[in-house]
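Entry for the shared binder. Reason: the reviewer on the internal report wants the predicted structure included alongside the sequence.
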Amino acid sequence: MSQAAAGSTVLVVGLGNPLMADDGFGEAVVDALRRRGLPRGVSAETAPDVFGLWSLWQGEARVWLVDAVALDEPPGTVHLFDHDEIFELSSGAGSAHHLSLVSSLQWLMHAHPGLRSVRYRLWGAEPATVSARPRLSESVTVAVAAVATEIQNLAASRTVDVAGGPHRVVS
């Protein structure tokens, strides 16, 4: 059962598997946010993949996803995609899974029409390695701190509706 607070305006979902090295990026960002303290109106949860959103979503208008993405940039490079850019990504782009994040979101919105009104944002870090190793690479560890700070500042500033602009590299 989700611990997301009813009435939260933003749900941050850290995706991935922390037992697979840099695939644990999303969970590490959520852990960092929880340690720092979440701004009012923000909840943070983890899931192994985007299908976990089904049970976590409590009606939040905004869902911010954090995941490892492979777009052929140096390890630790962070990409920020706003709502429209996420759905413009190739259905196979950047995914280490059989079904991409984009395809998974589309299936979820089909199955759960309430998710169609959500505005999504995605922070993705380039992994150095995705293998059976329960720790992040140094470059992705640095990215965790940068993304947690950016999410915390954005959420605290109450400018959550401001688009991230065109796809940008954060690091």
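Summary line for the report: The beta strands are 10-15, 42-47, 62-68, 78-81, 119-125, 168-169.
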